[in-house]
Every structure is written in structure tokens, then in C-alpha cells.
Amino acid sequence: MREMNNQLSFGTDGIRGKVGIFPFTPHDMERLGAALGAWRMGKKVDEPFVIMIGSDTRASCEFIKKALIAGLSGTQVQIIDVGVVAIPVLLWALNNDEKADCAIMISASHNPASDNGIKILARKTGSISSSDEQLIAQHFESIAKHPQIHTFSFSKNNHPYPACPECFVSLNEQNVSKGEREKITLNGQPFDTFCVAKHSGNAGERMGPLVPANPQITIDSTATERYEQALLAQCIPNFLAGKIIALDCANGSLSTFSPAFFEKLGARVVATGTCPDGNNINEHCGSTHPESIINLVKQHHADIGFAFDGDGDRIVAVNQNGDLKDGDDILALLTIHPDYAQQPAVVATVVSNEGLNAFVQNKGMALVRAGVGEKHIIKQLIELDLNLGGEPSGHIIIKSHLVRSDGLFVALQLLKIAQLTNNWNLNSFEKYPSVSVNFHVTSRIPLENEPLKTIIAAYQEQVPHGTIVIRYSGTEPLMRIVVQDKNLHHATQVAQDIEASLKKVLS
Fold first, then answer.
1. Of 76, 242, 315, 430, which residue is most buried, by most CB within 10 angstroms?
2. What would the DSSP string read from start to end of 235-300?
């Protein structure tokens, strides 16, 4: 996510950025709400549309939600607020509510609490299309450039009252006279208003209370419970009796839910990352800090361990010896599951290990490589009518369940495989040594441009039996380099040489 003259940029998984910086300010989130409203009104003009909204445990989610709702208030919108939920729970709830048109998840996934994000979910594809993202960005830019012509349904003494986006404030108890500018806070954040007197119709009139037209909001606190019951119905009662399961819930959306879920299946659960305070999500815990779950498994002699991320879509596993199993391992193990073993192919990414390729080929399957990012995997799954896909970071998609990754559901399937095969070590395949290097970039020169094209091609020739993947991060100002080769020393040297060469051009 970056700012270019008030333009929104959608990354590999929605919009993401630092709280307090464009676009994660009250003003811009409210404009985004208006843009979302304009986008949906273009698709469904004659009747109210219904949007579900959920969030993770970040403190900033509350002001973002209020600002989005304020922006949406100018349209015929009905909002179902499901509160703090994991993103797969939100998509599951969307799929099981015929009235809802789409859902908004407020979360920055595995990022720290200082970041936040917006993910817009759709039923059939899991997320909205690139063309829809472009339309929303265009509406946002139009509103930002011409706020005076974008009207919201405000009211004055129960009469319609047009106002520009900057006029949204909680003015129920305040009078705003001509020419006034006031600093008003929304959830402790400064909210800088425009002069609203210009909308009054009488230049000298002192205006009465302005009341934003409140959209119809329904609170639904049952989504997680209903999702839990749906998963429990798929399981043999107490099939985990006698097992010790370790969990790291990342102080995120699964914190209060997942430990009790596995206990209901008979397991003894030891858990960490279950005390969110609004600021500690993903902090030294969760799937991006696997040392926490590794230590927990070893300390309690657990049979297996799982670490999730802040919004519950990623998962990594740890076996009873404390060995980490990433998304490639998990994808390989899922091909053993009776429900998924007959697939002609699985979808991985360009950074997935070459060992996975050899493993699935030995099972008579093909490995399809997509671009890095969940949406690219989902695109291939839909186009090729396949069921299993994933990436090393722990996004694992089982399309017959949800068209999006679901950490808890995947954990449940791994447990069923371990029980069925007695493979509690989670043995999968022999990996090629892989070396990853990230470095900060100040510009994003297309990789097909010179001199980058020639530099990259030269290094590709140095690993004829391995792979090199070089790409810009979709969510951060980083260049990511991954080198895989049968020889670890060679892979390390090549990765370091690539980094040095590219830094000269990009840093």
C-alpha cells in the first residue's frame, strides 16, 4: 500500500498500511467507506445491500470500523457487525447468509499491531476481483478530489442534508456555525472537519444539530459459535482423547475460541498467545514466530502443535519432536487425506520447495505453480477446478471447504491424517535447501527492465537443478529473494550475490 495523490493501491491481500498514515486515518477510512458504498450501489441500485464487517483484535480496528460505517451511511446499506472473528469465520458466515452481498475484514493478518488492513470478501472467489478493486480505487480518488459533490445522507431536523465526506463527525450535540473549523476526536483520533455551514442554504444561518443518517446495524455475536458447531459436526466425538495439543493463537482472532474447540474434541490443550490487549497481536508469537510454539511443544511434551496468525488464516505445525512443518509440508500431508487424495494436481507457488514437486509427482499428481499470495493460488484453483493449494507461509486452501485459507480447519484435517496414519511426526518429503533474503527498497523498477533482467538471468544459470525466485513484496517495501539448490552452501552464496547486485540498483 502506498499513497500516490490520494490513490488507493491494493496489494496481494487487500489494502494494508501503518495506522495513522494514509489511508489508515479516520478521514481516509470514511472516504473508503463511501467508495465501497458507491461501488456496491453501482451493482445493486434498487434495493439495500448488506455488508458484514468483522475484525481482529487490534485496537485500531474500532475507529476504522466506525469511519467505514460513516462513509457507508450515505447509501442504502444494512450492516451486520460480527465483531472480532477469524477471517475464515467471516467468509463462512457470508457464505451461510443469503442476504449478505459481501464482507469486510479489518485486519493486517500477520503484521504487527501498528499496521492494519482492509480485505473485501466475496462468496465464489473468496475476495473481490482486480477490476472491482480498480473501481473502488477510482471512486475513492473521485471523492478525495471532489468532496463537495459527493453527498451523504445526513439529516437536519429529519430532513435530508447533503454533506461532503470531511463533514462526518459526531455532531449530534454540537452546533456548527458558518466558517467554523473544529478539531473533533473520533476514538481519540483527531478528526479535522470542513466548514459545514456552506451546506446550510443560508450563509448567515447558525445551524442546528446535524445527525448522520445511521445505517441499519445488526450485531451478530453468534458467527464463531455457529462455525464451531459446523466443524464439530464433521468430527467423531472425543477423537483426540489422550492427546496433548499445543496452540499459539498470536493474541489474535482465534485466541478465545480455538483452545476450547480442541478441548471439546477430547484433547488436553496448552496454549499461548491467548491474551490480546489490542497491541500485542503477532508480537513475538504466532505463525511468523514459530520459536514460541516449538518451545511450548517441547515444554509440555505435546503430541502436536499449531501456530496461527492474527486473523486465523495462516498455520504452521510442529511435531512431537519440536520440528517445524511449514505450508509445503502441510500441503504434502493433505494429499494423503482420503477426501483429497484423488486430485489430479495441487497448486503451490513459485517459492514452494522443489522437494514438494518431486513428492506430488511420485503420487501421480502435478504441481501447478502460482504467483506468491493467496489470491493467485485461489485463481488457479478456480480456473483449473482443483481443491488443494497453499504456500510455505501457511496459507492453505481447501476449496471444497472455503475459497480461502482456514488455519483451524486445516489443523483439524492434519489431526485426522495423523490419527489415520499414526504419523504424529508429520513426515512428508525431503526438502531442497532454501535460502531467503529480504532487503528494503526505495523504488520498484520492473524486474523485466534492464539492468535487472540481465542480472537475474545470469544468476538463474548458476542453479540449473534448483530455482531462483525474485519478487517485490506485495505488502511491504521489500525485495524478496529465494534460492533453492541441492547444495546449501551454493544456494547461500548465490542468494548473497544476488542481494549485493540488486542493492546497487534498487537501494
1. 315
2. S-TTTTTT-EEEEE-TTSTTTTTHHHHHHHTT-EEEEES----SS-TTTT-STT-THHHHHHHHHH
Largest CA distance in the chain: 81
Quick check: bond before 23 cis, omega within 30?
yes
Per cent of the chain over pLDDT 90 is: 72
Length of the chain: 507
CA distance 290 to 205: 62
Mean pLDDT estimate for the chain:
85
Where are the strands (E) in 356-425, listed by range?
366-370, 388-390, 396-398
Q: Residues 6 or more apart from 96 whose CB is under 8 A from it?
A: 226
Domain ranges, ordered by start, for the chain: 1-224, 234-304, 326-431, 434-506
Bond into 451 cis (ω within 30): yes
Q: Which long-range contacts (CB under 8 A, 24 or more apart) does 177-181 make?
A: 177/206, 177/207, 178/203, 178/204, 178/205, 178/206
Rounded-to-integer distance, Cα 127 and Cα 104, Å: 10
Provide the pairing of β-strand 388-390 with 189-192. unpaired
pLDDT at 492 over 90: yes
Helix (H, G, I), strand (E, B) or coil at 395: strand
Q: Which of 165, 123, 153 is nearest to 23 (CA)?
A: 165
| For range 5-27, the mean pLDDT | 88
| 479/433 Cα distance (integer angstroms) | 20
Residue 383, C-beta contacts closer than 8 angstroms, at least 6 positions apart: none
b/e for 57-73, b at 16 or more Cβ within 10 A? bbbbbebbbbbbbbbbb
- At position 23, the amino acid (one-letter code) is P
Of 100-104, 143-147, 240-244, 456-460, the least confident: 143-147
**DSSP label at 157?**
T
Which architecture, in CATH terms, is 326-431?
3-Layer(aba) Sandwich (3.40)
> What nine digits make up the cell of 491?
544456494
Q: State how far the Cα of 126 lies from the Cα of 409, in Å rounded to an integer.
A: 16
Domains 1-224 and 326-431 alike in fold:
yes
What CATH number was assigned to the domain covering residues 234-304? 3.40.120.10
Strand order in the sheet with 154-156: 159-161, 154-156, 211-212
Tell me, what amino acid is at 466?
G
pLDDT at 125: 87
Task: State the CATH class of domain 1-224.
Answer: alpha beta
What's the CATH number of domain 434-506, 3.30.310.50, 3.40.250.10, 3.40.50.720, 1.20.1250.20? 3.30.310.50
Higher pLDDT, 118 or 181: 118
Q: Which three cell numbers stand for residue 468?
A: 531462483
Residue 288 or residue 183, greater confidence: 288
Dihedral Cα 167, 168, 169, 174, nearest 10 deg = 50
